[in-house]
Amino acid sequence: MKKLIIAVDGFASCGKSTMAKELAEKLQYIYIDSGAMYRAVTLFCLRNSLISKNIVDVSQLLDVLDELRVEFRYVPEMDKNGTFLNGENVEVAIRSSEVSSLVSEVSKIKEVRETMVKLQREMGKNGGIVMDGRDIGTVVFPNADVKIFVTASLEVRATRRYKEQILKEPNITLKEIKANLNHRDFLDQNRSESPLRQAADAIVLDNSEMTPSEQMSWLLEKINEKIAKI
Ligand code: CDP
How far is residue 164's CA from residue 146's CA, in Å, rounded to a whole number? Predict the structure, then answer.
């Protein structure tokens, strides 16, 4: 059977990665979290003082961009793939609210996108992949076999992320999370390079009122309909 490319795009914190990961497991496909790659570059910038007052020192970043190694590797202790930056497992560090607050500033840089997109295409070239992000169905794999565009109300998305983040950062507030999601969605939709857009041939999933298992049944049904037509 043909190994498909499945693109999952959508707004911040609408459950794309949980859904994409589970789907990849069910299909025995590879899952790629493209957002983790932009988060890893952001972490690099923070650690190397390449961001000051929310402004990225683009020319310094471009000097070292080619030397950055961002990859996914299986981590036995986590029993899942983790994101690695120059050989270090940064899976936890890239999920901090500091990284979240700056990632959209880094991901809007043309050269950063070009470098990441090249890696993403390489990872997906043999198919059998579920990749989630913002521009997967529009730019990275415009010919993807299945494109899903996920959305949910801001209230629902913020509450979900808050429940996750409060366990790691006890001082975080729902208000801060909501502001961050709103701000990132704005920047992601309004940047000039590969803005977040729904591809014309994407299937829209609003999961505000869905449980994870309802969502998975919905998704598998849509994918089977697509496969039947291939
Ligand atoms: O998990 P969450 O929805 O919070 O975001 P993410 O998937 O980890 O993505 C973090 C950020 O990376 C987004 O807000 C975008 O700025 C950027 N991103 C992007 O520009 N293109 C992608 N394909 C994936 C993420």
Answer: 29
